[in-house]
Amino acid sequence: MCRHLGWLGEPVSVASLILEPANGLLVQSYSPRRQKHGLMNADGWGVGFFDGATPRRWRSATPMWGDASLASVAPALRSGCIVTAVRSASVGMPIEAAAAAPFTDGHWLLSHNGLVDRSVLPLSAGAESTNDSALLAALIFERGLDSLAGTIVEVAASDPNARLNILAGNGSRLLATTWGDTLSVLRRRDGIVVASEPYDDDPAWEEIPDRHIVEVSSSGMQLSILRGS
C-alpha cells in the first residue's frame, strides 16, 4: 500500500525526485516495481517540504498522473528536506486530500506505507482523517519521533498483521522504518534519498532489511534493528 520518498541534503527541486527519474513516484503511482500489496497508487498523493523551519504541503485525492499543475509547479518547489508519497487506500478508508500523506504536527512531515487495524490505535483529536495512516501518524506525533522505534514495536504487538513502514522528516533529520514492506537508500554527493523503491537503476541503491530503523542527518546515515523484533 502506497509508495513514499524522502530527501535530506542540498536544496533540490521536487520534480528532480518524483517526476524526472525513470521510475519516480509519478511512475510508481501507476506501475510500481517492488510494491508487495496492490497494483497501483491512484487514491491521492502529497508533497511536503520545508520552507526554513516551516513544513509546507500540497496534497490531493486524485491520482498523481491526473494533476495538470504538478509538472508546472514541481520544478519551482525546492528544499533540503522533502517527504512525498502516492497512496493506495485500504478497503473502507476515505479517499480525501486529508487522508493523503504527508501528515504533520507543525514540526515533522510523516508518511505511512502499510496497513494497521484501526481498533488498536487510540482516537485522537489531532488526527487529520479517520484512515489508519492518519490515526497512526497522530499516535506517533503524540509519543514523539524520538520514540518511533518503540511505538512501531508496540503497535505491531497489538496487530501482528500490521505493515508499518514510516518515513518522517523535520528539516534536519529523516527517520524511516521497515516493517512489512520495502525500503531503499541512495547516498548521493549532495544528499541521501530514502524511498520505498529505487527511482532508477543506479547500482548504488542499498536495500534496507525488514524490521530496521534508518536515521539520516547531516552526519550521514545510521541503521539499527527495531528492538522487540
Question: What does this protein look like?
Answer:
With 229 residues, the protein is α+β, with helices and mostly antiparallel strands. It is 16% helix and 34% strand. The protein contains five helices and 13 strands. It has helices spanning 14-18, 25-28, 70-73, 132-143, 148-158; strands spanning 3-13, 45-51, 54-60, 78-86, 103-104, 109-115, 163-169, 174-178, 184-188, 191-195, 206-207, 212-217, 220-225. The strands form two sheets. Strands 3-2-4-1-10-9-11 form a seven-stranded antiparallel beta sheet. A six-stranded antiparallel beta sheet has the order 5-6-7-8-12-13, covered by helices on one side. The longest helix is centred in the middle third of the chain and has 12 residues, at 132-143. The chain is globular, with a radius of gyration of 16 Å. The model has no long low-confidence stretch (mean pLDDT 96).
